[in-house]
Specification:
The chain is an alpha/beta fold and 279 residues long. It has two domains: 6-225, Rossmann fold (3-Layer(aba) Sandwich), CATH 3.40.50; 233-277, no CATH class. The chain contains eight helices and 14 strands. The strands form four sheets. It has a six-stranded mixed beta sheet with strand order 6-7-8-3-9-10, with helices on both faces. Strands 2-1-4-5 form a four-stranded antiparallel beta sheet, covered by helices on one side. The termini are far apart. The structure holds adenosine-5'-triphosphate and magnesium ion. The site of adenosine-5'-triphosphate has 12 residues, from β2 and α1.
Length: 279
């Protein structure tokens, strides 16, 4: 039987204690195989970043186990984790997290310092990634001179340089315009489908739902599998904008009906004068 790339069992994370205690992730189990693209979605504060940080060994779980390629990383010493992170996991963040003093090529090569093999093999791989991600003309540029889409492509190449089997992306398109975001999304889709990486992506972008294998829906730190469900768009009664019923944080109940709001502004206006917004 094929070992999953990632297997998490009964993961929980509690921040603080006593009356300030927050259970950010509550008894989550999941498993992901090579070639799968899995989305993690849910309202703001539902525990997505906390979950991803634990899966990537950036944050110690309060409870539960994580196995990466059959290795129980929760049992490892703190001093073993940098190697696991560098060699087995590729991270992609909303804010790109590139090193400003290094060029595109140097940023991509940076995690390969922990690779036991010689420089030549790594350099060749960096060259292939630079070509593949359309960065050849920006190879010697510094991050401050790159567009958002270019920065994220550098971050993807950096995540792939050590050929980790697991890619974790936390809102990778959150700082990009719609089309650039779509392009980044398709790169992540292709590395799962064509190259067999296991990709877990946190996103608020409903457009990706159709190309994902699974959607893991987090609500108050708990996982719900809503594979077959679709988003339900509702109109904000104040401004008229469409709001995602799943992710809207601002909700009011009035005369037995629920109303969803895009922003605090609309929510407050509604609360102050409900009658005028209800048809
Ligand atoms: N270091 C921390 N200390 C205390 N509480 C924290 C910490 N990190 C996160 N939390 C809390 O845990 C909960 C989950 O936060 P998390 O960042 O995982 O949410 P998220 O789903 O990623 O939200 P968003 O969509 O806004 O990024 C929130 O209530 C948050 O305030
Ligand atoms: Mg987050």
């Amino acid at each position: 039987m094929m070992i999953p790339i990632l297997k998490a069992s009964n993961l929980s994370k509690v921040f603080g204690s006593g009356h300030t205690e927050v259970k950010a992730v509550d008894n989550v189990s999941l498993s992901i195989k090579a070639g799968e693209l899995v989305l993690v979605m849910g309202p703001s504060g539902s525990g997505k970043t906390t979950l991803l940080s634990m899966l990537g060994s950036l944050l110690k779980p309060s409870q539960g186990n994580i196995e990466i390629e059959g290795i129980n990383v929760t049992e490892l010493k703190e001093s073993d984790l940098p190697n696991i992170r560098a060699l087995k996991i590729g991270f992609i963040f909303q804010t790109f997290n590139l090193l400003d003093a290094l060029t595109v090529e140097e940023n991509i090569l940076f995690p390969s310092q922990l690779r036991p093999e010689g420089r030549v093999g790594v350099k060749n791989r960096a060259n292939r990634l630079i070509e593949k991600l359309g960065l050849a003309h920006r190879r010697n540029a510094f991050p401050s001179t790159l567009s958002g889409g270019e920065k994220q492509r550098v971050a993807i190449a950096r995540a792939l340089i050590n050929e980790p089997k697991l890619i974790l992306a936390d809102e990778p398109t959150g700082n990009l315009d719609s089309q650039t975001g779509q392009e980044v999304m398709m790169i992540l889709h292709d590395i799962a489908r064509d190259e067999g990486y296991a990709v877990i992506m946190v996103t608020h972008d409903p457009r990706v739902e159709d190309i994902a294998d699974r959607i893991l829906w987090l609500e108050d730190g708990q996982l719900h599998d809503r594979k077959s469900e679709k988003h339900s768009w509702v109109k904000d009664p104040v401004c008229g904008m469409h709001v995602d019923e799943w992710t809207a944080n601002l909700v009011s109940q009035y005369k037995g009906k629920k109303y969803y709001f895009c922003s605090k502004r609309c929510h407050e206006r509604f609360e102050n004068n409900q009658e005028s917004y209800v048809v």
